[in-house]
Amino acid sequence: MTTPEEFEAAAARAQQLPTRPSNTVLLQLYALYKQATDGDLTGERPGGFDFKAIAKYDAYSSLRGTSKDEARRQYVELVLSMSK
Length: 84
Hints:
This protein is mostly helical. The chain contains 4 helices and no strands. 64% of the residues lie in helices and 0% in strands.
């Protein structure tokens, strides 16, 4: 199990990565962080032409049902893999 301290350290490390991750990885980081901190997504999918908001919604929505603990673990693992 990932501790809250490990998760917060990974979140801080994610802000200081040596290179900018791809958009796909950024969406994955966003979704895992939101799932770990807020739990399952609520609300309606954005409409119109706000493609960034739609992509973020879809990424976050794909984790529905994932526990906060599991999302924290996956987030920490992803950040650590990018820090090497």
